[in-house]
Amino acid sequence: xxxxxxxxxxxxxxxxxxxxxxxxxxxxVVMNIGEVSTVVPEYLTDCWRWAADKExxxxxxxxxxxxxxxxxxxxxxxxxxxxxRYGRTCxxxxxxxxxxxRGNEVEIKEIEVPNN
Length: 116
Hints:
Elements: H1 3-20, E1 28-34, H2 41-52, E2 62-68, E3 71-74, E4 80-82, H3 83-86, E5 98-102, E6 106-112
Parallel strand pairs: 1-2
Antiparallel strand pairs: 1-6, 3-4, 3-5
Helix pairs in contact: 1-2
C-alpha cells in the first residue's frame, strides 16, 4: 500500500504551505486523483485519517478527492477517448499510436482553512 507514503508527502506539502501563509489549522485538503493513477481513494482517506490526526495543524481535517477521468489522445486520427473503456487502442481507427492526456494525476488542488 503506497497510499500511506503519498499521505506523508501530502502532509509535508500542506505543512509547508501553512507555514508560508501563517495558517494555524487546516480544515480540508482537496486532492485530484487520476482514474489510472494506481491510487486507491478509500485507502488514501483511511491513511489520511490515521496520519493527519497526529498533527495539530491537521487534526480533524477532511481529505476530499476528485477523480479525474482518464483520457487518451490518438495520434492516428486525432480523437480523444476514454482510456479505461478502450485501453491503448483507439476505438475510432484502431491505432496503437496513442498517449495519455489526463487521468494519472495525484495532486493537491486546494487547502481549506476555517473561517475565523
